[in-house]
Queue: 2 jobs
Job 1
Amino acid sequence: MTGRADDQGRLPFIEAPAEAPVEASDEQPGGRVVRVLPDVAAIDRTFDYLVPVAWEEDGRADLVRPGSQVRVVLGGRRVGGWVVDVDVEPPDGVPLRPLAHVGGLGPSPEVIDLARWAAHRWAGRTANLLTTASPPNRVRVLPPPSSTEPVPKGPDRWAEGAFASPVSVLRLPPNADPLPLVLAGARRGDTLVVAPTLDAVGRLAVRLRRTGVPVSVLPREWAQAASGGVVLGARAAALAPVRDLAAAIVLDEHDESLREERAPTWNARDLVLERARRAGAPCVLVSPCPSLEALAAGPETTPSRAVEREGWPVLDILDRRDEDPVRGGLLGERLVPVLRSVGAGVGGPVVCVLNRRGRSRLLACDGCGELARCEEHRVPLVQAEEGALDCPVDGVRRPMVCDACGGLRFRNLRAGVARVREELEALTARPVCEVDAETPAAEVAAADVLVGTEAVLHRVDRASQVVFLDVDQELLAPRMRAAEQAMALLVRAARLVGPRSRGGRLVVQTRQPGHEALQAVLHADPGRLVEAEAARRRLLGLPPYAALAQVSGAAAAEFVDRLGAPEGVDVLGPRDGAWLVRAGGPEALADALASVERPAGRLRIEVDPARA
DNA sequence: CGGACAAGCTGA
DNA sequence: CAGCTTGTCCGG
């Protein structure tokens, strides 16, 4: 607000002092009282204000509805906020101030309630979620409801059936088309569709518009969304205005982009599930590789084996266990013929993925090439002191001996990444483009061979092959969701290369050819990964069989201290200055976190942490 | 958050 | 004891 003129063109620093408090008494007949949630960090409570009587004359009072964005004087300064209740009974003996300004319309009472629920569920402030739920520009009138032309009838019976139960999980292979599902939703009435990226949103919007279905794309078309039709957007659309929710769809529900990174770390999938439940509308969660969270929410519908197989590309697993770990660089022997054939394909460039973020700590046996990992927790062991290996999960130490062959010598697999591009160039006899966020689009488009971190998968829209030079780095990352995250990368890659009938090929170099994620893609059967993951998570008491929150920051110790050890809640850590709070489920976790009075100081509470 | 006010510290 | 810093409280 600093330096910006208000609605009357006055600048804050020269404006007249705020109006004196006005008693809500007989002197103010008809002065409506509204409840306002200020948008001020560290204030998470409401305050009551009067609607100025003069506003009844000039029509501004009409804009004061639940959700409206207003400015109020609070603690002697003007702050923004939302009307969250109208015509309330103010507390006795508190002199009320008038609203200072009304901006425009905002979220409906239903969305405000949903925002309150989410603030509790993810231990954050309601104001934060209301910001997401509010229009980016001032909205003073809603456009008239869109014409209700009949939605074209699709031939796809499966799409209709998806809405039969309150929640269902629809496993659609990577190259299947979700459009029939969205049309089937639109036939039921106002439909909310959430996809992980604006890219996916844009592509779907174009195709939907061609069918003549009224569609509003968030965040730009907030007002139009409120007037009905299909509402489509990225994760923020979970809080979009929808006139009369009749169906909800979350596309690629497994995708981590659906999760807000800043606290509160809400997830659009879970928010849409709750929203649909409240509205009594069916919700369909769609993914080629449904998350355990989704599978816990409703029954799964799977395509026929033939359809699912066709929707995945071929996977070539290049087993590197028997290669010489000393001489073998990042480009294994078996990769050579694959790369030599570059240029023969016509389906786009060859894309090589190598995640260099973080320090790889993989150790492989010098003798047999097997990776040193913890059999129980399925994570790579890290070298502690001389001759000892530690499990990063429980810290149990063991001697440095290969489980597979008894070998005593291990080799650090952290590779000389700088050389990879040159090696690729030598091998393929073509220019190789190293892609990062700054690489110009023209260079990316011109190259036959690309190499980069997983971000490279976002820089192209098709490829003849995608090669994961070191898929083990993904599969064995020391994160709870490493396998699912690796699977998500494989899905992304699968879409770039297309279905097997179009010649789509994925290539992975690995020392773990039997890993469930790879086997799942190889057989086009994501259930193989789900089974293994579910067993592991259940064993370790991890989501969705428990709920976690990571508490960090300077005030974290004090917070955890105040939390204590309530029934059904346990606290792990600290580890790197952060604690993990675990409860039986999201509700129990949220209640436990909310029961603690927040200490002063920096505190970050990450519910459903991404990297635990 | 940021203003108001109270309690504590310093220096002539 | 004025003048300033630091801490705590609270906003309609």
Job 2
Amino acid sequence: MPPGLKDVAARAGVSIKTVSNVVNGYVHVAPTTRARVQAAIEALGYVPNMAARQLRSGRSGVIALAVPELQSPYFAEIAGLIVQAAERRSWTVLIDQTDGLAERERDLVEGLRRHAIDGLIFSPLALAGEELALRDGTPMVLLGERVWHGPADHVAIDNTAAAADATRHLTALGRRRIAAIGVQDKPSAVTAHQRLAGYRTALAEAGLTPDPALEMPAEGFHRADGAAAMARLLDEGAPPDAVFCFNDLLALGALRTLLSRGVSVPGDIAVIGFDDIEDGRFSTPTLSTVAPDAPRIAQLAVDLLAERLGDGSAATGSPRELRVDHRLLPRESTGA
Amino acid sequence: MPPGLKDVAARAGVSIKTVSNVVNGYVHVAPTTRARVQAAIEALGYVPNMAARQLRSGRSGVIALAVPELQSPYFAEIAGLIVQAAERRSWTVLIDQTDGLAERERDLVEGLRRHAIDGLIFSPLALAGEELALRDGTPMVLLGERVWHGPADHVAIDNTAAAADATRHLTALGRRRIAAIGVQDKPSAVTAHQRLAGYRTALAEAGLTPDPALEMPAEGFHRADGAAAMARLLDEGAPPDAVFCFNDLLALGALRTLLSRGVSVPGDIAVIGFDDIEDGRFSTPTLSTVAPDAPRIAQLAVDLLAERLGDGSAATGSPRELRVDHRLLPRESTGA
DNA sequence: AGTGGACTATACAACGTTGCAGTACTTACG
DNA sequence: CGTAAGTACTGCAACGTTGTATAGTCCACT
């Protein structure tokens, strides 16, 4: 049985409460007493019992981070950064994998973990809009691209603008038949919609007519989906001279198809992705991409949550939307 | 304030304990009572308070998983699989990132989280041997390649044999100058040592003399390290005709260097990696590798932990070492 | 008719911690 | 010198849950 305040108190010859005061850094404790208690703590190897603390205070010191999947390098990176940011506030991060399942996401929102966590940082895939309204008062910060005025704080890049930047990079190279890979129908697939919108905007700016045959759907955002979409693009009629993939994994899959068929990149077809994952910096050719400022996203998400947790009433203030910068990174796959 | 047993009891007109009994599925509750209580639970949206539960039972239902880094696809995959396996036991997994820092690892082992977690699945990088002995009774399962008879249960593939298999694949192709990338000096870098040993064994079997110039060190196990090591290999004297990289990331980095210099793979140099991460299945050329049975590793780790948690005394039985299978996956980078 | 057992429900204590109220002693000040 | 303010410490209650003990009811079998 691990020692408690009781045991430390007995050993130091003081009351339980005094030990508690020492542990919590209460000021009015005589130096000699404090030293005696500290010694007892050391000797017994006392560690505060978090469960009891939480039961009293209602705070667990744990925040949850819910992402669709950790396998995806982008989310893995975000997760790592958020853990770091949370550590600076000595919070523990509980990582939840939703696999993009609506059911799992709903569980989170409806607060099945309610008592265990102080707040939630959430990157929703299946849920959108009002479905995200939290029933209990647990503060939540949304990550990624939510549309207008959701029910909670929200950190994201300007997705549409970033997609337009990527596409503009291709039109600026003089490409005319520019395909998009990653289109999704589901109304909840906000990311895909926004990137498609940005793509179309940039095409229009360049005076190009959108060709439905060039807007390739993808079930998921993985390499295999990108490879398959690219293959269809090559097999069906006139191939494009450039492709904007809605994320880097799709782009790497597309690259694989192109190279294995002997298509020159960027000679015949230029390719650009989205996210700036590490893989793209070492692929052959290296992958042009749009890089969201991930460290800043992580920092802001944690800061926002901290603000809501700071004052007791989580309801203070209306939801805020924070924009984070993005950068275009031209690499070999578009001829850098 | 969220409702507690007390509130439900009041609404249903029964005692607190009866509600507790209903919640915990105790058999001897009259159907009508049970229904009334269930209705009250629904109406109030009651959710059990985990902190209080843990305080009573000493069990949190949370296990920790500590890995060097989530960015690494191999660990991300393992993490995902462990979360799945734990979910089947309705455990929550707290993922800790050690960044391979000895200090962080020591904190874990010394049980700073002691009260918060029921058990620990740990993939140590910096710590080895007796330093890993847990002071308190928290059950621990070690992941990855620890040497003989550590202080805790341990799940791993036969690292040396797997490395030998990979190297043998290269000698079987008739390659004679086979390099290794990923050598590390630190005594705690057990993985690197074992893979080097396997490599040397296979060379010896093929009647080849090990050439120190072909054993390339790598600071980390990342793409950049692999790319740099490969560059040095090409620049210093006679280049090899095959390379065994100690993991897939190193191999992908090496691939990048080779292709950007116009070296043919596998024509001039064959490349094989280790881990079977998704990236290697979509690189150009696709990457030959050795695949550990990751799902089984995850399942066994969780099972082992469950066993230690089952009976109250965690000390039952001496540490066990479980071997998991691995498979050689020849792909394009060695001429498949 | 009496005894044992299964069934249903309850009361109480305890898990380890902290907020609040309170006690005893010291110092400061008019 | 008396009172107020500050310092050092203590005791009790409460957070929400569950294990143990207990009490009453009903039925079945001697």
